[in-house]
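Q: Could you fold this chain for me?
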Amino acid sequence: MRHEPKSFISPSYEASKLDVPMVDDLIDVFEDRTLGWVLKPAETLMNTPGLEITGFAVSLAYFEGIWSYIQCQDSKNRSKLFFTQGFVDVYGSSGAPVQLLERTAGVLYEDARCGFFHDAMFRDRIYFSAYYGKPIAVTLPLVNGVPDPAGEIESIVVLPKEYCRYLIGHFTKYVARLRDSANAALRQDFESFCRARWDIGGAGRTIVLQP
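A: Sure. Below is the predicted structure, expressed as structure tokens.
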């Protein structure tokens, strides 16, 4: 008996999962893709000596992407804005001032996200350390021995384990809200966005590879 090769749309689900999907099927796939292809691999890499840079680069895809789903809007031509708002949403619970978070996101977007994907390396303000107690620390210029909150950010120091914990915690909370049937409007908007973005029910593509 001939068996057709399986087609996976996420680490755990085959394409048939989305043949006639309900909203919870879409949430299942969204969660599996984000955790299995982005957050968990990034966490593993960032906790592996020598691979922290690669893991951090993978994780940078989360901020713009998650804000796009939270807002149920395409980020086209608004990449930096969505990246910034996603970052603020993730780290708002850290207690840092919103303005500082926005400025930090701007540096990360330019020196980390764009640096890596345009130059294949981070630019000069991104550092890593195992000794800071917070997921991300920023250094500011000193005025009379005191950090100037209005000064230009001199560097960003990332603590890999804490950094990843915030991302995964943020995503877990968002998925829990999506799965709560009491959040009917949130679920409906998410479902509509996924159906449009993922081409649910479309003809799909046929790819033929010549030997």
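A (continued): The chain has a mean pLDDT of 89.
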